[in-house]
Amino acid sequence: MKEGNFFHSVYLDESKCKGCVSCLKRCPTQAIRVREGKAHINPERCIDCGECIRICPYHAKCAEKYSFNEILEYKYRVALPAPSLYGQFNNLDDKDYVLTGLKRLGFDDVFEVSAGAERVSEATRILLSMKSTKTPVISSACPAVVRLIRVRFPNLIGNVLDLNSPMEEAARLAREKARRETGLPDEDIGVFFISPCTAKISAIKQPLCKEKSDVNGVFGINDIYPVLFQQMDKLNEIEPLSESGIIGVSWASSGGEASALLKERYLAADGIENVIKVLEELENEKLNDLEFIELNACYGGCVGGPLTVENPFVAKARLHRLRKYMPVSCNHLEYDSVPKEMHWEKPLEASPWRLADNIGEAMLKMNDIKSISESLPGLDCGMCGSPSCKSFAEDIVLGKADISDCVFSLKDKKGAEVFIPAPFRTPEDKE
């Protein structure tokens, strides 16, 4: 959904929203407010992590969807299955069942994202061996984490690995292969990602470090799983399509990317709240002894994405069993250097939240926010429609809320006096 200069894959279905504060309290960037009984998402702060989709008891938060009929708009169609897709099926001992099933759905070819992941792992090993690389390096594979860094931790942008994600690398290679084998131009080739999360949808619609994504569309695993399972159940012949090994498939769960680097000084964290804690420690220079940091917004890694269907712990166990039938790795770079095409086309830019364009005006607003915040009870209850007392004070200063929205402040008017800066006092307050 496009709002101003921002595209977001997460949106609100107002007909289902009850105005509870579940999403409000769990949003990692405080992008959600509840006003007039409905949740509202601030497009400048949302990172499309999908946490609100996972937590909403009324299913009022939804993900942008592509119609499966969109594949018919292309003469040649390629599916890009995320490695987390394999963990959704019970008793799976051969990835080719899944890949062949995807072809039966109407795709002409299948290119594994895990194949792209193996190339990214090798490229990362090369970059880590170079003295010019700033450490600790932060993985750029999770688009929700990358967006979180540019919004809340812009000082860490220089640590983010400037490599395409496995999805983009797989899409680039799949498109090259399709052009080579069919002779068709790009506009006739459709590349579609089978995604475990909402952040990937935004990364395709509005790439941060590319002019245009090589992916044409996205289907959530939860949407494609039922029809794919039916096709797999009908298979009489399995095509040998798999071209990735243990390293690529391991990217599906937390720690898989980091372990593929064959290094000891690394850290892997999953779950957006844990990710924030790690980034805060890194910003405070407490983790400088590390070489690499792998961060996943979803608990368990991509297997815990909001668009998956299986319990992430079950999916991870299934992938662990599946890996024993695989080679270590099937994809390697042609030379001992990272191809230019694997790097970002443009640098990652910060998108910090600003109170005002003018520094002097912003400072005055910060002082007002501090004054109002100190006068509030500090309960962070969310009953005012803001996630915390500090954010509520900010909303008052920005004219998006009124002090009377705090039920505790209303009670205090009869007893202890609440300080309200003059510009925000109502006629009743002045009396």
Keywords:
alpha/beta; 3-methyladenine DNA Glycosylase II, Chain A, domain 3; 4-stranded parallel sheet; 3-stranded parallel sheet
Q: Topology of this protein?
A:
Layout: E1 2-3, E2 6-7, E3 10-12, H1 22-26, E4 32-35, E5 38-41, H2 51-55, E6 61-63, E7 76-81, H3 95-104, E8 109-110, H4 113-128, E9 137-138, H5 143-152, H6 166-182, E10 189-195, H7 199-205, E11 217-220, H8 221-233, H9 246-249, H10 256-259, E12 266-270, H11 272-283, E13 292-296, H12 312-323, H13 359-375, H14 389-397, H15 407-412, H16 427-430
Parallel strand pairs: 7-8, 7-10, 9-13, 10-11, 12-13
Antiparallel strand pairs: 1-2, 3-6, 4-5
Helix pairs in contact: 3-8, 4-6, 13-14
Oligomer: single chain
Give the overall shape, derived from the CA principal axes: globular
Helical coverage, percent range: 25-40%
pLDDT averaged over residues: 89
Could you state the order of secondary-structure elements as H and E? Answer: EEEHEEHEEHEHEHHEHEHHHEHEHHHHH
Distance between the termini: 45 Å
**Number of helices in the DSSP assignment:** 16
Largest sheet: 4 strands, parallel
Overall strand count = 13
* Alpha-beta classification: alpha/beta
Q: How would you write the strand order of the largest sheet?
A: 8-7-10-11
Rounded radius of gyration (Å): 24 Å
Number of domains: 3
| Low-confidence region ranges | 418-427
**Which range does the strand content fall in?**
5-15%
